[in-house]
Amino acid sequence: MRHVILGAGPAGVIAAETLRKHAPYDSITIVGDEPEPPYSRMAIPYLLIGKVGEDGTYLRRDADQFRKLNVTVLRQRATHVDAARRTVTLDNGSILGFDKLLIATGSKPVRPPIPGMDLPGVQPCWTLENARHIAELAQPGAKVLQMGAGFIGCIIMEALALRGVELTVVEMGDRMVPRMMGPAAGNMIKAWCEKKGVRVFTGTRVEAIEAAQSVVALPSATAPAPASAEGGFIARAAAMLGLGGKSPAPPAPEWRETAPAPRGSAMSVRLSNGQTVEADLVISATGVKPNVAFLKDSGIECGQGVLADERLQTNVPGIYTAGDCAEAFDLATKARVISAIQPNAADQAYVAAMNMLERGAVLKRVPQINVLDTLGLISASFGDWQGVPGGQQAELTDREGFKLLSLQFDADRLVGCNSIGWTEHVGVMRGLVEGRVRLGEWKEKLIADPTRLTEAYIAQGQAQARWAQAGAHV
Ligand SMILES: Cc1cc2nc3c(=O)[nH]c(=O)nc-3n(C[C@H](O)[C@H](O)[C@H](O)COP(=O)(O)OP(=O)(O)OC[C@H]3O[C@@H](n4cnc5c(N)ncnc54)[C@H](O)[C@@H]3O)c2cc1C
Predict the structure, then answer these.
(1) pTM to 2 decimals?
(2) Is 291 touching ligand 1 by the criterion CB < 6 Å?
(3) What is 335-389 written as a DSSP string?
């Protein structure tokens, strides 16, 4: 059996290892278009703050891991898939045949259509290569402007702040993390960041980025000589002021406009609120989209991502998908969702690989979970945090204490929540939302006091055990 995996990120690597574990003699090839050994993007912030070196981001420490597993790794880009012929074309022109295919090509940052995005000091924070450039430019005291304050943006921000840069964040939504947090929570995170010294503009767009015409003093033939014992600064100043001395007053230094600034030098960023911000580095963190363009005319159906069922199979038998590029079927909500976090990539890769081996695995959930540490403030969102039509909600806000709990109910089930600060409730919130636990009378108690989550969880867990037992005797 020939298995081909497109993408050498977490999903691709876990799939390859799962395949090898259960199929010692099958042929397994990973095709990945990045030059480094497979690595974890979520380790990039740790690289930026010097907690790990580049090798600390690698998914597998052993450089020989894939050779030992007899997995071929090709550093190429897949440019086309022909589902009917069961072939993949690579960017070097070669063609790979497959029996089973996994598409695990992840996602890539979107590039907003803003003038100046092609300046060398503007870039995303997505790859190890990006991280190297950021580390070079984001020196202590450097002026950094970050476009976008979503989940990834906030993670990057933390690393930038720890590098000691002067940070400005510009978010076009009306609050920070607008796709993860409601208005009260998003604005609380903004207030926290401002308190920590980050300048944050929400409801604001970057309109243009221009290379600054930097103004520098150039030495000229008539410029003053460097200070010396005989004719130092004070002597020259006195001469300029006509306070005696033999030398004529030197002319003022010549100032002139230079050409557009080279890589890493100042840029002017024009904002929709009329302000202009100077920056040495602009980081674009304005969202990502699945890497699926190469599947055009392949016969594999795509929406935003590659469409898959609960076994991660696409519309083409034997072709699977996993990770950030997958629009996977969530059995609990009966909807297809992209949930671009690494634990989902790992779970989906495992299920896809087991099905490539015809071992009948099913993905039960595509958890919608985000837990974020923004400059030390822990926030979390689960499930339908925006609420559902006809549902009820409860919100507890402590602005001074930077704590918030927002619960969303559908009938007597907790279907989503936002929290800031209440780290002790994170596990319980996840359990109640994912378990679709019926709260009964506890719903009203939670509306009156959302902090009683743990009590509700314990009480309803016991109640459910009693119902289950009662059911077993019927
Ligand atoms: C800075 C940062 C911080 C993050 N922090 C967190 C976090 O704290 N928690 C969390 O859960 N998630 C985090 N994430 C998201 C997480 O990294 C992704 O969810 C995860 O990488 C998805 O894994 P994947 O294998 O699906 O995709 P990827 O890791 O993107 O791997 C896909 C690979 O396929 C390659 N590829 C694409 N197209 C082709 C092609 N045509 N041919 C060959 N190869 C191709 C890509 O270049 C890439 O190497 C973070 C991401 C970033 C950038």
Answers:
(1) 0.86
(2) yes
(3) EEE----HHHHHHHHHHHHHHHTT----------EEEEEETTEEEEEEESTT--T
Q: Is residue 342 lining ligand 1, measured as CB closer than 6 Å?
A: yes
User: Which ligand 1 atom is at minimum distance from the Cα of 126?
Assistant: 53
- Sign for the CA dihedral angle at 299, 301, 302, 307 comes to negative
Cβ–Cβ < 8 Å for 406, 453: no
Ligand 1 within 6 A of 106 CB? yes
Q: What is the pLDDT along the chain (474 residues), one digit of tens a residue?
A: 999 999 999 999 999 999 999 999 999 999 999 999 999 999 999 999 999 999 999 999 998 999 999 999 999 999 999 999 999 999 999 999 999 999 999 999 999 999 999 999 999 999 999 999 999 999 999 999 999 999 999 999 989 999 999 999 999 999 999 999 999 999 999 999 999 999 999 999 999 999 976 544 343 333 333 333 333 332 333 333 333 333 344 443 332 333 444 444 589 999 999 999 999 999 999 999 999 999 999 999 999 999 999 999 999 999 999 999 999 999 988 899 999 999 999 999 999 999 999 999 999 988 888 999 999 999 999 999 999 999 999 999 999 999 999 999 999 999 999 999 998 888 899 889 988 889 999 999 999 999 999 999 988 776 666 555 554 432
The two structure tokens encoding residue 112: 């907003």
Distance 107 CA to ligand 1 centre (A): 6
State in Å: Cα 325 to ligand 1 middle. Answer: 9
Q: Is 420 in the pocket of ligand 1 (CB under 6 A)?
A: no
Q: How far is the CA of 122 from the centre of ligand 1 (A)?
A: 20
